[in-house]
Amino acid sequence: MNLFRRLTILVPYLWLLALFLLPFLIVFRISLSEPVLAMPPYAPQFDIGEGWAALRESLSQLSFANYVWLTEDALYRNAYFSSLRIALVSTFLTLLIGFPLAYGMARASEGLRPILLMLVILPFWTSFLIRVYAWIGILKPEGLLNQFLMSFGLIGEPLTILNTDTAVYIGIVYSYLPFMVLPIYATLEKMDYSLIEAAQDLGCTALGAFWKVTARLALPGVLAGCLLVFIPAVGEFVIPDLLGGSDTLMIGKTLWTEFFNNRDWPVASAVAIILLILLVVPIVLFQNAQARAQESGS
Protein backbone atom coordinates (compact mmCIF):
# COMPACT_ATOMS: atom_id res chain seq x y z
CA MET A 1 0.00 0.00 0.00
CA ASN A 2 2.84 2.41 0.87
CA LEU A 3 4.55 1.54 -2.42
CA PHE A 4 1.34 2.33 -4.32
CA ARG A 5 1.04 5.70 -2.58
CA ARG A 6 4.64 6.55 -3.37
CA LEU A 7 4.16 5.63 -7.02
CA THR A 8 1.00 7.75 -7.15
CA ILE A 9 2.89 10.73 -5.77
CA LEU A 10 5.82 10.05 -8.10
CA VAL A 11 3.72 10.23 -11.30
CA PRO A 12 3.09 14.02 -11.29
CA TYR A 13 6.75 14.66 -10.48
CA LEU A 14 7.84 12.51 -13.41
CA TRP A 15 5.35 14.39 -15.58
CA LEU A 16 6.83 17.73 -14.53
CA LEU A 17 10.33 16.40 -15.05
CA ALA A 18 9.63 15.18 -18.58
CA LEU A 19 7.43 18.05 -19.82
CA PHE A 20 8.77 21.06 -17.91
CA LEU A 21 12.19 20.67 -16.32
CA LEU A 22 13.94 18.85 -19.18
CA PRO A 23 12.61 21.23 -21.89
CA PHE A 24 13.54 24.16 -19.65
CA LEU A 25 17.11 22.85 -19.26
CA ILE A 26 17.40 22.31 -23.02
CA VAL A 27 16.23 25.85 -23.77
CA PHE A 28 18.50 27.25 -21.06
CA ARG A 29 21.47 25.35 -22.49
CA ILE A 30 20.74 26.75 -25.99
CA SER A 31 20.51 30.27 -24.54
CA LEU A 32 24.14 29.97 -23.41
CA SER A 33 25.35 29.07 -26.92
CA GLU A 34 26.34 31.09 -29.98
CA PRO A 35 24.46 31.22 -33.32
CA VAL A 36 26.12 29.46 -36.25
CA LEU A 37 25.18 28.65 -39.84
CA ALA A 38 24.47 24.97 -39.24
CA MET A 39 21.70 22.63 -38.24
CA PRO A 40 20.88 23.05 -35.42
CA PRO A 41 21.93 26.70 -35.67
CA TYR A 42 23.92 26.99 -32.45
CA ALA A 43 27.25 25.90 -31.00
CA PRO A 44 28.80 24.19 -29.12
CA GLN A 45 27.10 20.82 -29.53
CA PHE A 46 27.24 18.21 -26.80
CA ASP A 47 28.35 14.76 -27.94
CA ILE A 48 29.04 12.33 -25.09
CA GLY A 49 30.51 9.90 -27.62
CA GLU A 50 33.52 12.19 -28.04
CA GLY A 51 34.47 11.70 -24.39
CA TRP A 52 34.32 13.69 -21.19
CA ALA A 53 37.21 15.93 -22.20
CA ALA A 54 35.28 17.16 -25.24
CA LEU A 55 32.18 17.60 -23.07
CA ARG A 56 34.10 19.75 -20.59
CA GLU A 57 35.51 21.77 -23.47
CA SER A 58 31.98 22.38 -24.78
CA LEU A 59 30.77 23.44 -21.34
CA SER A 60 33.63 25.93 -21.05
CA GLN A 61 32.41 27.64 -24.24
CA LEU A 62 28.98 28.45 -22.78
CA SER A 63 28.41 32.02 -21.61
CA PHE A 64 25.73 34.47 -20.51
CA ALA A 65 26.58 36.88 -23.32
CA ASN A 66 23.08 36.61 -24.82
CA TYR A 67 21.48 37.69 -21.53
CA VAL A 68 23.86 40.65 -21.24
CA TRP A 69 23.07 41.65 -24.82
CA LEU A 70 19.32 41.51 -24.15
CA THR A 71 19.67 43.94 -21.24
CA GLU A 72 21.61 46.35 -23.46
CA ASP A 73 19.31 46.22 -26.51
CA ALA A 74 16.43 48.71 -26.36
CA LEU A 75 14.23 46.60 -28.66
CA TYR A 76 13.93 43.74 -26.21
CA ARG A 77 13.52 46.00 -23.17
CA ASN A 78 10.71 47.83 -24.92
CA ALA A 79 9.17 44.51 -25.99
CA TYR A 80 9.10 43.26 -22.40
CA PHE A 81 7.69 46.52 -21.02
CA SER A 82 5.11 46.75 -23.81
CA SER A 83 4.02 43.14 -23.24
CA LEU A 84 3.63 43.73 -19.49
CA ARG A 85 1.68 46.95 -20.13
CA ILE A 86 -0.68 45.36 -22.63
CA ALA A 87 -1.17 42.31 -20.39
CA LEU A 88 -1.90 44.45 -17.31
CA VAL A 89 -4.38 46.71 -19.13
CA SER A 90 -6.07 43.71 -20.75
CA THR A 91 -6.32 41.92 -17.40
CA PHE A 92 -7.88 45.02 -15.80
CA LEU A 93 -10.41 45.40 -18.62
CA THR A 94 -11.23 41.69 -18.47
CA LEU A 95 -11.83 41.99 -14.73
CA LEU A 96 -14.12 45.00 -15.23
CA ILE A 97 -16.25 43.00 -17.66
CA GLY A 98 -15.88 39.56 -16.11
CA PHE A 99 -16.77 40.34 -12.50
CA PRO A 100 -20.29 41.68 -13.24
CA LEU A 101 -20.90 38.72 -15.55
CA ALA A 102 -19.80 36.23 -12.90
CA TYR A 103 -21.81 38.04 -10.22
CA GLY A 104 -24.93 38.01 -12.38
CA MET A 105 -24.47 34.30 -13.09
CA ALA A 106 -24.04 33.52 -9.40
CA ARG A 107 -27.19 35.48 -8.46
CA ALA A 108 -29.29 33.94 -11.25
CA SER A 109 -31.80 31.17 -10.54
CA GLU A 110 -30.47 27.62 -10.34
CA GLY A 111 -32.29 26.67 -13.54
CA LEU A 112 -30.70 29.51 -15.48
CA ARG A 113 -27.13 29.05 -14.25
CA PRO A 114 -26.26 26.04 -16.48
CA ILE A 115 -27.46 27.95 -19.56
CA LEU A 116 -25.37 31.01 -18.66
CA LEU A 117 -22.37 28.80 -17.92
CA MET A 118 -22.72 27.12 -21.30
CA LEU A 119 -22.86 30.51 -23.03
CA VAL A 120 -19.58 31.50 -21.35
CA ILE A 121 -17.72 28.38 -22.47
CA LEU A 122 -19.44 28.24 -25.88
CA PRO A 123 -16.62 30.13 -27.68
CA PHE A 124 -14.24 27.28 -26.80
CA TRP A 125 -16.17 25.10 -29.23
CA THR A 126 -14.67 27.15 -32.06
CA SER A 127 -11.00 27.32 -32.99
CA PHE A 128 -9.10 30.13 -31.28
CA LEU A 129 -7.52 31.16 -34.58
CA ILE A 130 -10.89 31.36 -36.34
CA ARG A 131 -12.32 33.53 -33.56
CA VAL A 132 -9.39 35.96 -33.83
CA TYR A 133 -9.73 36.05 -37.62
CA ALA A 134 -13.42 36.91 -37.18
CA TRP A 135 -12.43 40.11 -35.38
CA ILE A 136 -10.58 41.22 -38.51
CA GLY A 137 -13.90 41.20 -40.38
CA ILE A 138 -15.53 43.13 -37.53
CA LEU A 139 -12.86 45.79 -36.93
CA LYS A 140 -11.54 46.55 -40.43
CA PRO A 141 -12.55 49.92 -41.97
CA GLU A 142 -15.27 48.32 -44.12
CA GLY A 143 -16.12 45.81 -41.41
CA LEU A 144 -19.32 45.13 -39.52
CA LEU A 145 -18.65 47.56 -36.67
CA ASN A 146 -18.03 50.58 -38.90
CA GLN A 147 -20.97 49.70 -41.13
CA PHE A 148 -23.24 49.47 -38.10
CA LEU A 149 -22.09 52.81 -36.65
CA MET A 150 -22.29 54.61 -40.00
CA SER A 151 -25.74 53.21 -40.79
CA PHE A 152 -27.10 54.88 -37.62
CA GLY A 153 -25.20 58.09 -38.29
CA LEU A 154 -23.03 57.76 -35.20
CA ILE A 155 -19.82 58.32 -37.18
CA GLY A 156 -19.17 60.08 -40.48
CA GLU A 157 -16.17 58.04 -41.59
CA PRO A 158 -14.82 54.59 -40.68
CA LEU A 159 -12.88 54.29 -37.44
CA THR A 160 -9.31 53.01 -37.58
CA ILE A 161 -9.33 50.20 -35.04
CA LEU A 162 -7.67 47.28 -36.81
CA ASN A 163 -3.85 47.14 -36.64
CA THR A 164 -3.77 49.22 -33.44
CA ASP A 165 -3.25 48.46 -29.76
CA THR A 166 -6.99 48.94 -29.28
CA ALA A 167 -7.66 45.94 -31.51
CA VAL A 168 -5.14 43.92 -29.49
CA TYR A 169 -6.94 44.83 -26.25
CA ILE A 170 -10.28 43.83 -27.78
CA GLY A 171 -8.88 40.51 -28.99
CA ILE A 172 -7.26 39.62 -25.66
CA VAL A 173 -10.29 40.61 -23.58
CA TYR A 174 -12.64 38.65 -25.82
CA SER A 175 -10.39 35.57 -26.00
CA TYR A 176 -9.57 35.33 -22.29
CA LEU A 177 -12.83 36.56 -20.77
CA PRO A 178 -14.02 33.02 -19.84
CA PHE A 179 -10.79 32.48 -17.88
CA MET A 180 -11.75 35.46 -15.72
CA VAL A 181 -15.45 34.68 -15.41
CA LEU A 182 -15.23 30.99 -14.45
CA PRO A 183 -13.02 31.22 -11.31
CA ILE A 184 -14.91 34.26 -10.02
CA TYR A 185 -18.24 32.51 -10.64
CA ALA A 186 -16.99 29.38 -8.84
CA THR A 187 -16.16 31.54 -5.81
CA LEU A 188 -19.33 33.61 -5.79
CA GLU A 189 -21.61 30.65 -6.33
CA LYS A 190 -20.55 29.15 -2.97
CA MET A 191 -20.98 32.42 -1.09
CA ASP A 192 -23.61 32.71 1.62
CA TYR A 193 -25.61 35.77 0.57
CA SER A 194 -27.23 36.01 3.97
CA LEU A 195 -23.95 37.65 5.03
CA ILE A 196 -24.88 40.67 2.89
CA GLU A 197 -28.25 40.94 4.63
CA ALA A 198 -26.51 40.69 7.99
CA ALA A 199 -24.06 43.47 7.00
CA GLN A 200 -26.94 45.71 5.92
CA ASP A 201 -28.78 44.98 9.17
CA LEU A 202 -25.66 46.17 11.01
CA GLY A 203 -25.73 49.51 9.21
CA CYS A 204 -23.79 48.91 5.97
CA THR A 205 -25.06 50.44 2.78
CA ALA A 206 -25.60 48.19 -0.22
CA LEU A 207 -22.30 49.38 -1.73
CA GLY A 208 -20.49 49.01 1.58
CA ALA A 209 -21.81 45.47 2.07
CA PHE A 210 -20.75 44.57 -1.45
CA TRP A 211 -17.23 45.90 -0.90
CA LYS A 212 -16.73 44.46 2.60
CA VAL A 213 -18.39 41.08 2.04
CA THR A 214 -18.78 40.11 -1.61
CA ALA A 215 -15.56 41.62 -2.94
CA ARG A 216 -13.44 40.14 -0.16
CA LEU A 217 -14.97 36.68 -0.41
CA ALA A 218 -14.51 36.78 -4.20
CA LEU A 219 -10.83 37.77 -3.90
CA PRO A 220 -9.42 34.22 -4.41
CA GLY A 221 -11.40 33.86 -7.64
CA VAL A 222 -10.35 37.34 -8.77
CA LEU A 223 -6.68 36.55 -8.18
CA ALA A 224 -6.97 33.22 -9.98
CA GLY A 225 -8.76 34.85 -12.93
CA CYS A 226 -6.20 37.64 -13.17
CA LEU A 227 -3.36 35.13 -13.30
CA LEU A 228 -5.15 33.01 -15.89
CA VAL A 229 -5.49 36.08 -18.11
CA PHE A 230 -2.23 37.92 -17.38
CA ILE A 231 0.19 35.01 -17.81
CA PRO A 232 -0.82 33.93 -21.35
CA ALA A 233 -1.45 37.54 -22.40
CA VAL A 234 2.18 38.49 -21.73
CA GLY A 235 3.47 35.95 -24.24
CA GLU A 236 0.58 36.26 -26.69
CA PHE A 237 1.59 35.97 -30.34
CA VAL A 238 -1.48 35.27 -32.50
CA ILE A 239 -3.60 38.24 -31.40
CA PRO A 240 -0.96 40.99 -31.81
CA ASP A 241 0.21 39.41 -35.07
CA LEU A 242 -3.29 39.39 -36.62
CA LEU A 243 -4.94 42.41 -34.98
CA GLY A 244 -1.97 44.58 -34.07
CA GLY A 245 0.03 46.88 -36.31
CA SER A 246 3.70 47.41 -37.00
CA ASP A 247 3.95 49.56 -33.87
CA THR A 248 2.51 46.80 -31.66
CA LEU A 249 5.58 45.42 -29.91
CA MET A 250 5.12 42.28 -27.84
CA ILE A 251 7.67 39.74 -26.74
CA GLY A 252 5.78 36.86 -28.34
CA LYS A 253 6.19 38.39 -31.81
CA THR A 254 9.83 39.21 -31.07
CA LEU A 255 10.47 35.64 -29.96
CA TRP A 256 8.89 34.24 -33.13
CA THR A 257 10.97 36.57 -35.29
CA GLU A 258 14.23 35.49 -33.65
CA PHE A 259 13.43 31.79 -34.01
CA PHE A 260 11.98 31.63 -37.52
CA ASN A 261 13.15 34.75 -39.38
CA ASN A 262 16.56 35.47 -37.90
CA ARG A 263 17.18 31.83 -36.92
CA ASP A 264 18.99 33.07 -33.81
CA TRP A 265 18.05 30.25 -31.47
CA PRO A 266 20.38 31.27 -28.60
CA VAL A 267 18.96 34.80 -28.35
CA ALA A 268 15.41 33.50 -28.76
CA SER A 269 16.02 30.96 -25.99
CA ALA A 270 17.35 33.69 -23.70
CA VAL A 271 14.24 35.76 -24.44
CA ALA A 272 12.06 32.75 -23.53
CA ILE A 273 13.95 32.12 -20.28
CA ILE A 274 13.58 35.74 -19.15
CA LEU A 275 9.90 35.66 -20.07
CA LEU A 276 9.44 32.49 -18.02
CA ILE A 277 11.10 34.12 -15.02
CA LEU A 278 8.80 37.16 -15.35
CA LEU A 279 5.76 34.86 -15.36
CA VAL A 280 6.92 32.74 -12.42
CA VAL A 281 7.03 35.79 -10.12
CA PRO A 282 3.22 36.42 -10.03
CA ILE A 283 2.59 32.69 -9.56
CA VAL A 284 4.90 32.59 -6.53
CA LEU A 285 3.29 35.74 -5.10
CA PHE A 286 -0.18 34.22 -5.60
CA GLN A 287 0.83 30.99 -3.87
CA ASN A 288 2.31 32.93 -0.94
CA ALA A 289 -0.88 34.99 -0.64
CA GLN A 290 -2.98 31.82 -0.63
CA ALA A 291 -0.75 30.24 2.00
CA ARG A 292 -1.06 33.30 4.25
CA ALA A 293 -4.83 33.36 3.76
CA GLN A 294 -5.11 29.70 4.73
CA GLU A 295 -2.94 30.25 7.80
CA SER A 296 -4.99 33.24 8.94
CA GLY A 297 -8.21 31.30 8.28
CA SER A 298 -7.09 28.33 10.32
Automatic annotation (TrEMBL):
The residue ranges crossing the membrane are 12-32, 79-103, 115-136, 167-188, 217-239, 265-286
Alphabetical list of CDD domains matching this protein:
TM_PBP2
Which UniProt keyword terms apply here?
Cell membrane, Membrane, Transmembrane, Transmembrane helix, Transport
Q: Which domain of life is it from?
A: Bacteria
State where it is primarily located: membrane
Q: Which InterPro entries match?
A: MetI-like (IPR000515), MetI-like_sf (IPR035906)
Q: How does it sit in the membrane?
A: Multi-pass membrane protein
GO terms in the biological process aspect are: transmembrane transport
Any single GO CC term annotated in Swiss-Prot or TrEMBL for this entry:
plasma membrane
Where is the protein localized?
Cell membrane
For the ABC transmembrane type-1 domain, which residue ranges apply?
Answer: 80-286
Protein family membership: Belongs to the binding-protein-dependent transport system permease family. CysTW subfamily.
The molecule here is called: ABC transporter permease subunit
Q: Output the lineage of the source organism.
A: Bacteria, Pseudomonadati, Pseudomonadota, Alphaproteobacteria, Hyphomicrobiales
